[in-house]
Write a structure and sequence with these properties.
Elements lengths: L1 H12 L2 H22 L9 H29 L5 H13 L1 H16 L4 H33 L5 H35 L1
Helix pairs in contact: 2-3, 2-7, 3-5, 4-6, 5-6, 6-7
Length: about 190
């Protein structure tokens, strides 16, 4: 009980830790879910990819999202529906493209792709991913910026990220499957 109370005090003092821990758990879980939905069994999962999702979620997404939430709260300090919608819309045209580009680029780099191949992955996947993200995140972030307290906004988004990361993982897998098809054609 003492440990839990100290942990809670620590995460209250350093709220970014909440985001790091929640993204460090939710992003790899979402990748496992997506791989399982794609037909893989537990013993054949790509654990390297699961680790990549954990690393990227913890040390890239959580801190960058934390910074965005803090900046948006300074720019628009009110917590009402109108302000929440404004923040959500602005996010879809600023942080959203940054996050999507970063995801596709860095996941490709972590897969061993070259810089040019990673840039090409961004070109191929950015607009399809962004269109879905506009629909998904605009609604959830309006809720987040209107009714969720600032200290819990990053954990709220990380919970919503479970579904989103399954989608991102699916988009990432499309590139890997396309590459496998190309290699198979070359081998024939």
């Amino acid at each position: 009980m003492i440990v839990l109370s100290k942990f809670r005090a620590f995460t209250s003092k350093y709220p970014i830790i909440r985001g790091i821990l929640s993204y460090g758990a939710i992003w790899p879980v979402s990748n496992v879910i997506q791989q399982t939905m794609a037909g893989k069994q537990f013993d054949s999962l790509d654990w390297n990819q699961v680790a990549q999702f954990a690393f990227f979620g913890s040390f890239y997404v959580a801190p960058s999202l934390y910074a965005w939430v803090r900046i948006s709260s300074v720019i628009w300090p009110q917590n009402n529906f109108k302000t929440g919608v404004i923040k959500a819309v602005v996010e879809q045209f600023t942080f959203g493209p940054f996050a999507i580009t970063s995801f596709h680029f860095w996941m490709s780099i972590m897969d061993g792709k070259t810089f040019d191949e990673s840039v090409d992955a961004v070109r191929q996947k950015f607009f399809p991913t962004w269109k879905v993200g506009m629909c998904y995140w605009a609604v959830l972030q309006s809720i987040n910026f209107t009714w969720i307290s600032e200290k819990n906004r990053v954990p709220f988004v990380s919970c919503c990220s479970l579904v989103w990361c399954c989608f991102l993982s699916y988009m990432h897998q499309l590139q890997l499957k396309q590459k496998e098809k190309e290699l198979t054609k070359l081998a024939l």
